[in-house]
Amino acid sequence: MRLTHRDLRDLATLLRDAARTEIMPRFRQLGPDGVRTKTGPLDLVTEADEQAERRITAGLESRFPGCVVVGEEATTADPSRLDMLATADLAFVVDPVDGTANFAAGLPLFGVMAAAIVRGEVVAAAIHDPLGDDTALALRGEGAWVETPEGGRTDLRVATPASAARMAGNVSWRFLPEPSRSIVCNNLIRLGGCWDYRCAAHEYRMTAAGHGHFLFFNRLYPWDHAPGWLLHREAGGYSARFDGSPYRPTETTGGLICAPDRAAWQDLHETLLTAH
Length: 276
Fold this sequence. Notes:
This protein has about 280 residues and is an alpha+beta fold. The protein has 2 domains: about 5-155, Fructose-1,6-Bisphosphatase, subunit A, domain 1 (Fructose-1,6-Bisphosphatase, Chain A, domain 1, 2-Layer Sandwich); about 165-275, D-Maltodextrin-Binding Protein, domain 2 (3-Layer(aba) Sandwich). It has 8 helices and 14 strands. The strands form 3 sheets. Strands 3-4-5-6-7-8-9 form a 7-stranded mixed beta sheet, with helices on both faces. It has a 5-stranded mixed beta sheet with strand order 11-10-12-14-13, with helices on both faces. The protein has a two-stranded antiparallel sheet with strand order 1-2. Helix 6 (about 200-210) packs parallel to helix 7. The radius of gyration is 18 Å and the shape is globular.
């Protein structure tokens, strides 16, 4: 199945509507029962996550009859939903509020993400910024761009390659096991600079737009990475898991490095993952 530009705009509209009706009215308005922990104190869910996912899911099932929707919150309750991604003729992964910790803290750095997956391959992506009210979009083989509700479009392009010592980007090390965690953290000084915004939606958007050189992640839940991976790829970037194999939305481990090109990826891989 091949999605069209019209399908992608409909997806963007669904994300924008959920942000407008379910997310932004709750921003900085959450009551004492509006935030809960899931697996631990750093893993939060809010009313906005749950209500937005329900709204997006209903919209996708209406717009794309027969599709499979794998939302972050629904899959937390039923992990077997992940198994559907490999074989579904059309599936969508949905992260209703990426950057929930920021959202719950009242920090204006969060996004709404979705990707379309056809038999295990990511074919379309949308990352909506509820505060900027624009959406980063990508279609496999057709590029990546940011689009406003009025139809204004800005094409995305990754940064110019450089040496690791001159590149700056996102390093998310907190889910790394030892000894990799210590190795990576000790090697951060070898980079030009690094940050972690606790929000993959904006980290992918920034990097696809060339405002950072690279991304480094360990945990790979598809709702966190499938949309941004395609956005980065279609903006001209190169990515691979730590062992050099291609990213696949059906794999949740193995790490991921996104870089401007293959040579930059290799330089970053050696710089960060080698004990010096």
